[in-house]
Write a structure and sequence with these properties.
Spore Coat Polysaccharide Biosynthesis Protein SpsA, Chain A, three-stranded antiparallel β-sheet, two-stranded parallel sheet
Length: about 140
């Protein structure tokens, strides 16, 4: 959460989680950190998409972007946030990604069908960054 707190592009931190984890986070993380940004807790969902949905409902109306970061991937850097915000000018949503190094195989059952061209794939990472307007459309306009 330090990178989120230090980033000039982040104005609030919304954490979807169960009541059990909310108490743990407040006692063991926030109480021992120097987080200056507003931290809002919302109920987590049955699956990740439901948790994200609950968090998006609480994003301030003044926000122009929504950055989605998984707590299980804690090594976010402020430079990554900056790159995602800058890249968003060219698209409605962007992800952090890196080139794939291992050899990838396409398989069917236990049979190898082919070697995947690594130039045509990337490894997706968190966070994801979206224009607020587009993110709300995807989640709430049916």
């Amino acid at each position: 959460m330090t990178a989120l707190d230090k980033s000039q592009y982040v104005h609030e931190i919304i954490i979807p989680c169960s009541d059990m984890y909310r108490a743990y986070i407040k006692k063991n993380i926030l109480a021992h950190s120097a987080i200056q940004k507003k931290v809002i807790f919302v109920s987590g969902g049955k699956e990740r998409v439901h948790s994200v949905h609950n968090a998006i409902r609480k994003v301030s109306s003044s926000a122009t972007h929504i950055l989605v970061q998984d707590a299980v991937r804690p090594f976010l850097q402020t430079a990554t946030i900056m790159h995602l915000v800058r890249a968003l000018g060219k698209a409605d949503g962007v992800i952090a990604a890196r080139l794939v190094v291992p050899t990838l195989k396409e398989v069917k059952g236990k049979r190898i069908l082919s070697t995947v061209d690594r130039n045509s794939v990337v490894g997706s990472r968190n966070p994801s960054n979206f224009l607020r307007k587009k993110c709300l459309q995807v989640h709430f306009e049916k």
